Amino acid sequence: MTITELAIKRPILIVVIFSALTLLGIFGYIQLKYELFPNSNFPMVSITTNYTGASASEVETSVTKRVEDAVSGLDKVDTITSSSQEGRSRVQIQFTPDANIDFALQEAQRKVNGIIRNFPDGVDTPTLNKVSQDDRPVMSVGFTSNLPDTKFYQFVNDIIEPHISNMAGVGQVDIGGGRQREIKVNLDTHKMNSYGLSPLGILNSITKANLEYPAGIIKDTDAQYVIRLAGRFQSISEIQNLIIGQSTNGGDVRLSDVAEVQDSKKDLIAITRINGKDMISLRVLKQSDANTVEVTRLVREELKRLESQYQSINLKSQIVSDTSTFITDSANAVKEDLLLAILLVAGVMLLFLHSVRNSLIVMVAIPTSLVVTFIGMWAFGFSLNIITLLALSLVIGILVDDAIVVLENIYRHLEQGEKRKDAALHGRNEIGFTALSITMVDVVVYLPLTILSGTIGMVHQFAWAIIISTLTSLFVSFTVTPMLASRFSKLQTINDGTLMGDFGGWFEKKYTALTNDYLKVLNISLKNPGKVLLFALLLFGSALCLVFFGFIGTEFMPQADQNQFSVDFQLSPSAKIEQTNEMTFILERIVQRIPEVQTIYAQVGSSGGSSASNQGSLNVTLIPKDKRKRKADEITHALRPQLARIPGIRVNISQPNIMPGGGGYGAPIQVAINGPNWDDVMNSANQVQKLVAQIPGTSDVRLSAADPQPEMRIQIDRDKMAKLGLNMDTVGQTLQLGLTGNTSTQYEDRDGTQYDINVMLDLSNRMHTSDVGNLTVANQKGQLIPLNQFATITPSVGPALLQRRDRSYSVTVSSQAVGRTSGDIGNDIKDVLSRQKFPDGVRTTFIGTLKSQADSFFSLGLALLAALVFVYLIMAALYNSFIYPFVVLFAVPLALIGALLALALTKNSLAVFSIMGIIMQIGLVSKNAILLVDFTNKRREDGLSVKEALLEAGRERLRPILMTSLTMVFGMLPLALSKAPGSEFKNSMGWALIGGLICSMLMTLVVVPVVYTQIERLRGVFAERIVRLTGGDYSD
Length: 1036
Prior knowledge:
Layout: H1 3-9, H2 11-31, E1 44-50, H3 56-71, E2 77-85, E3 88-95, H4 101-113, E4 127-131, E5 139-144, H5 149-165, E6 170-176, E7 181-187, H6 189-195, H7 199-209, E8 211-219, E9 224-231, H8 236-240, E10 243-246, E11 252-254, H9 255-258, E12 259-265, E13 270-274, E14 277-278, E15 280-286, H10 292-309, E16 316-322, H11 323-353, H12 356-363, H13 365-379, H14 386-394, H15 396-399, H16 401-415, H17 420-446, H18 459-478, H19 480-488, H20 499-527, H21 529-548, E17 564-570, H22 577-592, E18 597-605, E19 615-622, H23 632-644, E20 650-654, E21 669-675, H24 678-693, E22 698-703, E23 709-716, H25 718-723, H26 728-739, E24 742-748, E25 754-761, H27 770-774, E26 776-778, E27 784-786, E28 791-798, E29 801-805, E30 808-817, H28 822-833, E31 843-846, H29 849-879, H30 884-889, H31 891-905, H32 912-941, H33 946-977, H34 983-1030
Parallel strand pairs: 7-25
Antiparallel strand pairs: 1-3, 1-4, 2-3, 2-29, 5-15, 5-16, 6-15, 7-12, 8-9, 10-11, 13-14, 13-18, 17-19, 17-20, 18-19, 21-30, 21-31, 22-30, 23-28, 24-25, 26-27, 29-30
Helix pairs in contact: 1-2, 1-19, 2-13, 11-12, 11-14, 11-33, 12-19, 13-18, 14-18, 16-17, 16-18, 16-33, 17-18, 17-19, 17-29, 17-32, 20-33, 20-34, 21-31, 21-34, 29-32, 31-32, 31-34, 32-33, 32-34, 33-34
């Protein structure tokens, strides 16, 4: 008993099975989490090492290079990049996608631990972390209150941050802006010298006087007591009155005699504002397996609760950015597209079948297939994201294909007078192998996509969603469709006088006329095969020229309008944070004049250190896309010339990178200049920057290397230093303490909160470069020796930032793409650079988006070839021939003509999603050819000639071909026309599919029969020659 016969004879069993699947599918759907994109595997480890007070060159030599050498031998390392700047080293290791990140982290930690002993004194222990695409914040929030700034910072740090951090799904919370309390001990150089005291000696006295010791345990007859020495400072006055030495006359020297002790604030290194108002900000990062939408929802609820609980301090919060908004808007838009696609497909069904009953039989395939797909997505750990929802929307037209083919054949048997059950069984059995082949053609096209890795590896969820739903639709067409047809399907008679009858009669007349016209065209084409094939070849060549001559641009991904853009700027390296703040105010006022702007989140400096005091950024949120006339890129294009007129700053305007691993805001065009010599690399980078700036479409062309930073170079005379009883460690520590400060000890307030005690020279003693030479260092005898007695201090400049890639110096030239696609600009850059001569060892490579584009296009190209091979093998098995599959595959270039023409007419680019659409249509357009060729072969087996069989196949298969093609076209139309958030990805794929399907539908009906006749003719000629030569039979 076949599965179809079982379904017809035991319908309740089928109903029970699909009812259970529906319940399980609903449960699976509820369990799916919302994400923007699927989690992709980008295994990366970051190694951060602080070396306070060291220049970029010293950090590179003493730390960065040693770390690079240590980790370079790790397994499965793809790329090692590093940056060295004042006081900080950062090394990032990018592993291959198949690497185990946890094992890689352990091995990297082991390698780093082995070189720590080789670091100079003063280098902190390196910190190793896994880097994830989820390291970008899912939400940023600003807070204000009526508390003083230091108390408010402590409130945020002690109350708000722990509340948010401990919430389900929250991985990390970072605080930005605000002022922290600090106890400053400002040393007076002259007073210290007069008492014979050194900065290191004073620090040592403060540290030893501020200790708490567990002294042990004492037992008496009644109890046991823990003895604790409470030696911490109890008040600021205790610090001021601390005895730190003896004067020459024997009197006590207290700290207040040589220093001013202030209950103050940390030096200003970062400022955050929202719409011009100072705030403290929180950046919320989620756990890797958490649901973004759920996390942000819980955070919003917690913010409301905190505001209510702390009304006494007038606590207010303002959400600056929330990625879940774009996610939910994009997901909801795709759901709407899906529902609209279902309605349009239903309309096409009704148009051709003239029966609500038969249309519903076909449409049942959609919900039954989708619920099973939800089960598969849940089982495989997929999420509801743009990729999977896009797959579900695109597959709507495909899901009814098998049901259409089966029902159309069942209907033909009903017209021949068979009973419903017999017609359902015979109709399905007759077309069963063809339906199986058609479905397998669809499935095998997506198999290569399931094994892709890297950035493009995210499409495997797209492929599996379509595979699961398509196989389910085949199962439905073999069970549910014949079961329903055996009970409810009937011959539909067109009754004049009713709306449906009149429309059906009109439609059938038009369809009959269309069929007759088509047969005339087909007959003429069969008589003129050479002209038809030449015409098709010319169209195919013309379509390819659309790409080669630049009518269709190329890029990795279209830029999505996320209602945001960023303005990043830099002043000269010597700029103070106060100067940067003033410039930020100027930029804010300019941006505020843009009518579409909703929120401006300004950041000045960085909490990472004073080295960023010359940097600032504005993260601008726009009103929703559907409420403004201009796109985000149009707004930024108009803003660029306004900011370019401001002197003394370098500005970069960018939109957020939506792709996983994209790194937030970034430039789509990045060229890395690598080489063994820093000067050669910098000179070459400057040369490349000028060349890139001259290429049309580039904007905000800049170097990753910072401008040279002014510095004072201290050259020690080692002989003099040794004779004076000093050593390099003592000198270095004294310099670091005096100029940078030392916070190795803390003051504990009465509530148990600890604040840094920062010991350093008073500002008046470190305002001028000459003050450095006057700094005194104590030798082992306690003698105070000015630095200028054994050192030469000269003004100089040094690199503020040193970057390396794979242990070679590296500088990146980056640019925004305006008015042209990044791929086209990249091709121009490649052409220009190929004609340039660079110093020996210097080489240029594309990185970032352009590299991802090249890698993804290569992977998709291989996937396309593999899909063609798989389709050929399926066809060879279907026809038991190695020749007939070529007839079917001829429909593929015909579809490519329409796809490229549609992309050109709609001004869409050739990107990852549009290429996926082209791959997708290989299976879709092959099905039409299969229907024609399969029917032709059967009629030839019945004794018809090739031409007669082709004409009858055209007549009988025209309706199912039109139905399946139009259902897919109308099912994809909402995606192509969408203007909702995230539509930029869907549009290009939708138009590529629609153009390919329409062109293939029209040309397949004519060209494939012509190709069939020519192959048959060649087979005949070839067979005659074989028979003549061998005297035997010939069979392919």
